[in-house]
Amino acid sequence: MEANIIVGVSGGIAAYKAAELVSSLVKLGANVEVILTPNAAQLVTPATFEALSHNPVRVDTFVQKISREIGHVALAQRADLMIVAPATANTMAKLACGIADNMLTSTALATKAPLLIAPAMNTTMWEAEATQANLRTLLARGAHIVGPDSGSLACGTVGSGRMSEPTEIVAEALRLLGRKSDWEGLNVLITAGPTREHLDPVRFMSNESSGKMGFALARAAMERGAKVTLVAGPTTETPPSGAVLTRVESTLDLLSAMEALCDAQDVIIQAAAPADYRFEAPSGKKLKKNGGEPLTLKLVENPDVAKAVAARKKDNQTLIGFAAETDDALANARRKLTDKGLDMIVLNDVTRKGAGFGTDTNIATLITRRDETECPLMSKRELAERILDAALALHTIQPK
Ligand code: CTP
């Protein structure tokens, strides 16, 4: 493996496991350069890592033993991958905020290489809202996270927070380094999240869609080289940076955004859950109670965006939709595939545990006119890769 890998070690008890990680990467042929935070250097010695990596080890940004180059910038520029293992809660927080107060964090800020983070900390710190928010920020920015695993921790408790085994971190590193750029040159439009239909300025009707699946698809497609346009409804999830983002609110907004954007796309993946109905007569003012009288609201059907997109489909376009079903799932999804003029539909039976809205995992069936492929319980990220594999195959073989 010809790769320049930076291994940043921060000050957790798991720092000793980083030695095995470095040793494995070197055995695979990588040029590994190690950075210790000052706290890590209290737990493990630079000498160990120098011996294992056959390279000088950096601890301090300003102590410059190595030629005239600006240490962290030169190191950052030549890296193909930066791994932070273990990543303590403190280092994760600094990475999320862009704080650059030591050699590790400065290098992370200065590199364009993918960042692979292996968190290690006590369970309460891992579950703390601040850490989870930092995790979401890092994920949204495209960082990759491996672990943490569950097990007995250095603090004597059992729970989540143990650093993944070096073999797992190496496997993830290899996956990232060998990543395919098979979507290069393709324009992809992905819709994500719910839409909202307002009844009055403060009330609306919506659904449970979180946007996670669409954002996972956008992230994966960008990493595989696609130029991604995202059209997203209101979400609390942060969309990945790097995509061209259009925010929409209602299904009618979504329709106009799609009409403006869809002609330029090679592949369109509609993971959004647009509201099927809107209020016939939304009020410009907040509605008041009605003296005990029942309130009757009339809904009118929204246009089907997927059908509208299919109606103007270009010769070279591949259209993919989703079907969220609670009953008669396969039959409904097959019908939607044809009715909506799609080339593939991703069926989620949302009644299954671990599938559907809000979760980080999903269970799906990929249905095309030729075949049906089961995707068992897996992360939305993994499913995104499967969907992209299938979509690319369809896009390549489709009669033009
Ligand atoms: N969709 C759309 N416009 C709508 C409703 C859905 O474009 N008004 C798209 C979704 O983005 C998704 C696919 O159609 O890709 C299927 O969505 P789903 O909610 O499962 O289907 P519906 O057509 O709304 O069918 P129903 O709610 O009757 O099951």
What does this structure look like?
There is one protein chain. The chain is α/β, with parallel strands linked by helices. The chain folds into 2 domains: 174 residues, Rossmann fold; 199 residues, CoaB-like (Rossmann fold, 3-Layer(aba) Sandwich), CATH 3.40.50.10300. The chain is built from 14 helices and 19 strands. Strands 12-11-8-13-16-17-18-19 form an 8-stranded mixed sheet, sandwiched between helices. The chain is globular. The two termini are 39 Å apart. The site of cytidine-5'-triphosphate has 17 residues, from helix 12 and strand 16.
CATH architectural type of the largest domain: 3-Layer(aba) Sandwich
Strand order of the largest sheet: 12-11-8-13-16-17-18-19
- Count the helices. How many? 14
Unique ligands: cytidine-5'-triphosphate
Helix and strand arrangement:
Blueprint: E1 4-9, H1 17-27, E2 31-36, H2 40-43, H3 46-53, H4 71-78, E3 81-87, H5 89-97, H6 103-110, E4 115-119, H7 123-127, H8 129-140, E5 144-145, E6 149-152, E7 158-162, H9 166-177, E8 187-192, E9 197-200, E10 203-205, H10 212-223, E11 227-232, E12 244-247, H11 251-261, E13 267-270, E14 277-279, E15 299-301, H12 305-311, E16 318-325, H13 329-339, E17 344-349, E18 361-368, E19 372-379, H14 380-397
Parallel strand pairs: 1-2, 1-3, 3-4, 4-5, 8-11, 8-13, 11-12, 13-16, 16-17
Antiparallel strand pairs: 6-7, 9-10, 14-15, 17-18, 18-19
Bound molecules: cytidine-5'-triphosphate.
